[in-house]
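Complex 270.
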Amino acid sequence: MTSIVQFADIHFGVEDKDAMAALAATVDTLKPDITVICGDITQNGKRDEFLAARDWIKSLAGPKVITPGNHDTQMYGILQRFFDPFGRYNKIIAPLSEPHYTDQNVSIMPLNTSRGWQAKLDWSLGVVDMEELERVSDQLKATSPETVKMICVHHPLVYPPSSPLQKETENGVEALIRLSELNIDAVLSGHVHAPFALERQPDETEIMSIGSGTLSVRRRDKPASFNHLIVNEETITVTEIFWEDGKFAVATPWIKHISELKSRRPVQPL
Ligand SMILES: [Fe+2]
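Predicted structure with fe (ii) ion bound:
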């Protein structure tokens, strides 16, 4: 069994201080083997926000896979946004992230969908570099075929119907189809500040999309929350853990059977 805690959109600077103060005790009970953080770790990419985030990440036991969000560029440094948008992230947070994680049940790789600036009005939108996607997928394919293969991004590749935010990620549809062709099993994301877990069938294959809510005060009609994933030989279970009435509570789990995922994998050569 592998226990995974998935966070996103903590937005240090505007984090929910009450929820964050109670978080460690709740996470301890989940005994995570790996922590995944799907971006927007800070609110404005300020140094003090990154330092607070670093201290919190260091307080978490075990390995972490981390990817930056669009808020992890420097909001108030236009030159940095153009020439070194992830300079602070790379200096302070990136060294805390595993390049990838694998065990007997899961393999997880980060993929950055955020940009410092883009040739479009809304710089907050996600972009998938398809060459980077191939590189990440190659590393996942090199792990045991028995593992559930996941990528960790900030932006949903395709926004779920339930999302209070409806945007498009550049190359998102193509990326989802390509990932399913490559037998990647799940996309872990953040950005929409509302949790979700669903399966998609691009090109008649299957791939899971699992989004974490936010632990900031920037809510979109949803309580603060994070996800707990349990992967064993038979199932993947995703449980939203949400902050309500001064304590964390557990939502009804979403369960996916591994046999459905394995059924679409190519037959391995003898
Ligand atoms: Fe966010």
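The first helix runs from residue 17 to 30.
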